[in-house]
Amino acid sequence: MHEFIAPVALDKAYRLITHGPTVLVSARHAGVDDVMAAAWACALDFQPPKLTVVLDKATRTRALVEASGRFVIQVPTRAQLDLVVGVGSHSLADMPDKLARFGVSTFEQPGHALPFVEGCAAWLACRLLCEPHNQQCHDLFIGEVEAAWADGRVFRDGRWRFEDVDPAWRTLHHVAGGQFYAIGQAVRSEQ
Amino acid sequence: MHEFIAPVALDKAYRLITHGPTVLVSARHAGVDDVMAAAWACALDFQPPKLTVVLDKATRTRALVEASGRFVIQVPTRAQLDLVVGVGSHSLADMPDKLARFGVSTFEQPGHALPFVEGCAAWLACRLLCEPHNQQCHDLFIGEVEAAWADGRVFRDGRWRFEDVDPAWRTLHHVAGGQFYAIGQAVRSEQ
To answer: What pTM was estimated for this model as a whole?
Structure first.
């Protein structure tokens, strides 16, 4: 289904996460790929686009990010709920076949040596801005978005199009445990 | 309607913002109150609960936060859409009657010298953790949540209850300009 994946202009990349979805974080180092879920990810700047993500010290993905200086933030959909909870609840350290176990397939994007998770709604390829204080004291990682893509069925012309597609495309917004909300109705202010 | 406002245990406070709502930031210093909207706010830690929020240098609210070391993050609802867009689009510096103009009423919480915005779904009273590098380089402010409250009609027993109340209670999730989504259906994983 890669024919629907289209680049997103960097000055619009913040729109992929400003509505606060739970994301998947993926990284690669020395031949090892890992994917985790993160509810605490947030846009930080418009241009160049930057974002923050909280990565616990216990996660294998964090170690890959620190070693490679690269990661992908991707926006999963309601159709991927069990995958999100699975990769968010288990560590590659304890479950070497974690990705296969939870049905995670990845694909490549030319020029980016990173694992991109199939079936997501959007992907942001990031370069780690190394900030030892934030990483050590707050588990807070800052990335500059170097390239972004979205599935044109659900995000195009700089806007989400949830109202036009099957509810399975809705983004996930975590509360706690296995409890999430899907994103809902579009609302617009006339102010 | 304050009879519905109830404290939220600090170890559950992260649940008020983990689903990624746009928030209102309020602060007070030297007799001046201000309120702004912020789409880029995010939980940072569980216990003690901490959060991040991006505050542009052009905002008057930021100056009040820096001067007082205190602020409130509150979670507005769909019923407050025009208020959110109004306070998010105009500065107190240019519009001295900004709060009245957009229908913002505030109330007090004993022990907290801060303006709390009426009609929101939840409130988190924060102490600024002074981090000059993050504030200057990234416009990124870190707060420790010292107390939290929610309207028990929409958040109780540590969980959002959007499915039980009028859609006007749904939280707002910004995309860009005047475009938002309301939070949608509850989804739960059986993983």
So the answer is: 0.97
